[in-house]
Amino acid sequence: MAKHINIALVGNPNSGKSSLFNYLTGLKQQVGNFPGVTVDKKTGSSQVAPDLNTTLIDLPGTYSLYPKRHDEWVAYKVLLNQDTDIKPDMVLLVADASNLKRNLLFCSQIIDLGVPVVVALTMMDLAKKKGTQIDIPGLERELGVPVVPINPRKNKGIDQLKKVIAQSAENLYQPPARDFIDNNALAENAIASVKQHFPGISNYKAIHYLINHEHFLLHDTMQDTIEQIEIDNAFNPTKTQADEIMQRYTRIKHIMQQTVVEADPLQKALFTERLDDLLLHRRWGYIILLAVLFLLFQSVFWIAQYPMDGIEWTFGQLSGWLGNTLPQTGWSDLLINGVVAGLSGIVVFIPQIMILFGLITILEDTGYMARISFLTDKLMRKVGLNGKSVMPMISGFACAVPAIMSARNIENRKERLLTIMITPLMSCSARLPVYTILIALVIPSKLYFGFLSLQGLVMMALYLLGTVMALLVSWVMKWFIKSTERSFFILELPTYRAPRWRNALTTMIEKAKIFVFDAGKVIMVISLLLWALSTYGPKKKMDAVTAKYEQLIRENPGQVIELEKHRKTELLQSSYAGTLGKAIEPAISPLGYDWKIGIALITSFAAREVFVGTMATLYSVGDDADENSTTLREKMASATRSDGTKVYNLATGLSLLIFYVLAMQCMSTLAVVKRETRSWKWPAIQLLYMTALAYLMSWMTYTVFS
Prior knowledge:
The chain is α/β, with parallel strands linked by helices. It is built from 30 helices and eleven strands.
């Protein structure tokens, strides 16, 4: 029977830990939450040998065993065996060879805990470019644990790593006999007293019992006992920690001298450093950042235009063919105006979503996203945030739900709360279908200087508007949310790399699947529900409309086509959907909206992208069979009010765009805010302020452009 062990995967941030986890586990992964805290728990299974199965626990990245943030406490408790659910049998520590000195601090602390450790050395190619040479056998001797150089991107060293893990599991590798530091010089008597109560623990682990026992799984009597040991031995946690770190760096300096040959520091700076001189320049850095964002949003229109046109044409032809082929029955109406119309509202936006996520993935892969955090830290601080808030805000361009969850890495409670409150103002991908259809309706397809798309410029302006409003709201809220915590910003800038095109392609496909199967299910359900609400209504009202037009047709046989159009319009107004839209029309008419738009505002609260599916259904229900080949944009462009004026003029179109930039319109986001803040207070405030802001700004826009 195959043996099974649990392996804790640890390392500094940006050390390549996630790449190794993904490679070893493949698709056999699960994502949950550690009990009691909103920190992701990623676990995965991997068979490292025919007779050895492993469960890998990917712990949050940390720089040392002295935690400050929530995610660092999670890793710390697992490594100290203070987690009720996870008990690792071994530690797989990922260390960055290009920054070995910094990584060895955490590495030496883990080794001193006395658990079996295997070190996976990543970034060997970058170390080589820096002119750094590492004596691997010598490093193994100095550390006392196996060290395996790997490159998960190129599948180098993985087989050797699995072999070493299997050997360690069979106790072929033992923890080193002596610690990196002289524990006795730190607190000899206190350590001995603790070990009397916890036989078998290492000296270094005993120090952590003395420093952090209040956070450990100990009963009250034992807590009091350790407190008394501290008092009896005049134990000073701060001095002990400082002395430990000094001792470690003295030993690390010796290890580096014995095993590492570094390049002459006077040699020419690496490509990364030279590039940072430009990209992080106090003036050019911001200009380049704006240019990158500009190209990002221009590309969403440039590249996606032709596949979107092709998809629209295909669905238009399909609807027309079905309308001319199928009999005029209820089920055919459901198929054409419910299923096909709803499906077209999903598929047509796949190209733009794939392109947007693909480009964002490339920016992350190259290392430029971290530079954006660095560049914007000064601005963030002025509005009550810090540079770490930028990553959730940028992630909000994709989806607010994971973006809000990623704010967990912000240590300061006030800054984290402010980040959560403003992130939904960033234009997520769910808004993209709404922007696209409305921009195409009211903004001319013009090119300036032969290549600048006016529609692309408007798209970029919408994204910038959401960002600017988010910063303004944060500046206002910082005066109302009180906190005495001190804030600090530590960021590691990863080395620039060529993007992993396969990774970008995989992300594009995965995000498209999520949109189609997750958002798409919501859109289809609401589209079919809307078809039913738009087709049926109170029997008396519907019968009265039918009888009225039957009589008019008998009296005016030459106007059958015109009367049929009016009959379908009036039936739609008398339906359940029409009744609902008419009920809220007085409240939204100051914004330039009619009752059909009102229905879309209600349904799109489930998910913003449902707006397009709602429009597709509402404008399909009243169609004649021979008109089904027209696209949704053409139907909306030709829509008129009772006085003959166009529904979607410039004022209404811009008002709607502004509304969707600023309004909450997302149940999932409110749910995750409640989960992250553990209160309904903050999502309620968020819903109220965003709705009020959206209404006010939309009213102002409609008033100005009317």
